[in-house]
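Hey team,

Filing this mostly as a record. A colleague (T.K.) asked me to run one chain through the structure pipeline before their review meeting, and I want the input and output archived in the tracker in case anyone asks later how it was produced. No errors, nothing strange. Just documentation.

Input sequence:
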Amino acid sequence: MDNTQKGKLTSGNNNSYWLDSIPAISFDPLNENKSTDVVIVGGGISGVTTAYCLLKSGKKVILVEDGNIGSGESGRTTAHLVSALDDRYYELERIYGEKDARLIAQSHKSAIDFIEQTVLKLNIECDFERLSGYLFLHPSDDRNSLFKELEAAKKAGIDVEEVPYLPGSKEQIPALKFAGQAQFHPLKYLKGLCDAIIDMGGQIFTSTHADKISHEGIETDKGFKVEAKHLVVATNSPVNNRFVIHLKQYPYRTYVIAAKIKKGSVPKALWWDTGDFTQNKEIAPYHYVRTQRLDDTHDLLICGGEDHPTGIAEQAKINEEDRYSLLEYWLKKYFTVEDIVYQWSGQVLEPMDSIAYIGKNPVDKNNVYIATGDSGNGMTHGTIAGILISDLINGKENDWEKIYSPSRFKIFSAGKTFFKELAGGTLAYLKNKSHDSKPVEVGTIMVNEGKIIEVEGEKFAAYRDVNGQLHIIEAECSHLKCIIKWNNDEKSWDCPCHGSRYTHEGKVLNGPANKDLKYYSNNK
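Output structure:
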């Protein structure tokens, strides 16, 4: 469904099932100056959970969001709630050691517990349920990887065991069973938290863009100010950190389809494969699946994967819009499904050392906090952020502070994997940048096509919409001036360097950019 329908501003052309299944969560825009204890920028799970935790602790809180609540990446997730993380525990043990690997596992288990307890306390109807998750072997992977993960996960305190077959699948594949995982409807959950925030005296303002951000508070693009003792930036990719964090994480696009299945035909569970090593031997892209209640006769089987570095889909010679058919092919290999009824994509940020950056913003005042680097586990990392940042602001000791510190720099532990991927993406971008520099005749731009053009030595990004209208914007990202690339799936302009994204009219969809690109309309 197009993102303009039902007034739902989202970060792409395709709406997710979550955004499409409930009314938009919106509040009035900020229209006056205010002061508070804590101002939070960002209305996804990190920002909303932080607001909820701080209000429970007695702080006064204002949250601002430039779209609607959950209209960014929190509304484009598949909403797995897991302590069985995207990055294997044997890798976390290598980077952090056994003690901290246990602490990482404990933090994610605590996040799931927090969500469960909050759902019960606030009586939030959000389809929350506990279930098991299954990690199974991809044909390109070595079975020894399952054994290594089994041993490492056990040492980290995870309830895991080997099982001889994969429940619900047409294929008989060895797998690991992780008990105590969960799933929910993320937008219904956020709505419940927002209701509680308002009931506790918190203030939420949507359609409110924080244009200027500092340790003293924010100023919106309309000129209204919020003065605060503490500032939290929870914008997926932090818009207040220009360099430091973006050298330590890398943006990826990930793709999702939702297929109808007969109710009860597939057991309720979570599934992941170990990744396709034929595509990338260092960071093997993997697939992930879950069920979701739909109606009286059908459920949804939601499948994600086919990741690639943002703005550089051509590395694998597969366009963004073609990734859904690959997901469908993979899904039908393992499960019996009916029609594909939803497709969407999202963006994840992969840190160099596998876990999120949560805490005080590096090279900033001590009252400024960020949450970023979801590493494909945004729902639990976002919940961890709410708990941890609330403790930090309240001066409460938290065992997670050091491992999630945004100031950490495990360059040698991260090793060749991160740098091979970072360098590979950057080099591919630079290689293709020269092709974009070649002048393109405006008349050759077809309907629903975007290209970089050059006029008198200056580059512009041009897109022709379904009505033949030409939309031209600046071609250099407002973050660090990289040349943007057209994403034909989400009909957006994406920056290959750090993941900033824009509409065809130059409006910012994703950070780290916080400024729109200049827009030129041309109806030729």
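Quick notes for T.K.: The longest strand covers residues 249-262. The chain is about 25% helix and 30% strand.
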